[in-house]
Design brief:
The protein has 190 residues and is an alpha/beta fold. It has a single domain, classed as Flavodoxin domain (Rossmann fold), CATH 3.40.50.360. Helix content is 43%, strand content 16%. It has six helices and five strands; from the N terminus they run βαβααβαβαβα. It has a five-stranded parallel beta sheet, with helices on both faces. It is globular. Bound molecules: flavin mononucleotide. The site of flavin mononucleotide has 19 residues, from helix 1 and strand 4.
């Protein structure tokens, strides 16, 4: 079994990557392999609405999306983590979600039955909106979304304004989420 983590921040050593790793560490402890893709390292174009995916069952735009989608298909679990930007998820992550939803849909609901949940990090506000945008992707794809002891929303700023390590509730929530996600995956896939 494998869980793919996708980090949506353009920043190196980003807060959303830190929190993603809090969840993935628990999943690893439960004996499930994990892999992280940071979108800051990838070239991702927006959906061009060409509808090629209806016939091709893949996206015909020539960039790094194909490699990410292949990894999504091979993983049993997918965890998304993003900073909140003006109450939304980041643009590259939204492109990945829109393109993968379309390819998977026209290909016969290719992501159906996988397990996963979103994580957001904000300095102050907009968590619920960004979280909802990602939940729409999970539900559209027929995926199972495990919960935690609280919503997977975390607090941190940039340049040390607020250190992610100080968000104890956020960290506890993600550890509990990682444990719950592992338990749900074992019930479904083992
Ligand atoms: C363009 C931009 C928009 C942002 N919009 C919000 C926002 O709506 N609400 C908020 O609380 N923080 C906002 N922030 C702050 C980031 O969400 C916050 O610093 C976050 O911890 C950065 O995470 P990262 O290190 O994973 O990139 C914004 C930051 C940027 C660069």
């Amino acid at each position: 079994m494998k869980v793919l983590g996708i980090a949506g921040s353009p920043r190196e050593k980003s807060n959303s990557l830190y929190y993603l790793n809090c969840a993935l560490e628990e999943i690893e402890k439960a004996g499930i392999a994990t892999e992280v893709i940071a979108l800051r390292d990838k070239k991702i174009e927006p959906c061009s609405a060409c509808y090629d995916c209806r016939e091709a069952r893949l996206c015909t735009i020539n960039d790094d999306f194909g490699e990410i989608f292949d990894k999504m298909l091979k993983a049993e679990g997918i965890v998304l983590s993003t900073p909140v930007y003006v109450s939304s998820i980041t643009v590259p992550l939204m492109s990945v979600l829109q393109r993968s939803a379309f390819v998977a849909h026209w290909g016969g609901k290719m992501l159906m039955g996988k397990v996963g949940a979103p994580i957001t990090v904000a300095q102050r506000a907009g968590q619920n909106m960004a979280l909802s945008q990602m939940l729409m992707w999970y539900f559209f794809n027929g995926m199972t979304v495990p919960g935690s002891i609280y919503w997977n929303v975390c607090i941190a700023g940039t340049r040390g304004a607020r250190d992610p390590e100080k968000d104890e509730i956020g960290i506890q929530t993600l550890k509990a989420f990682g444990k719950n996600m592992s338990a749900v995956m074992k019930k479904i896939f083992v």
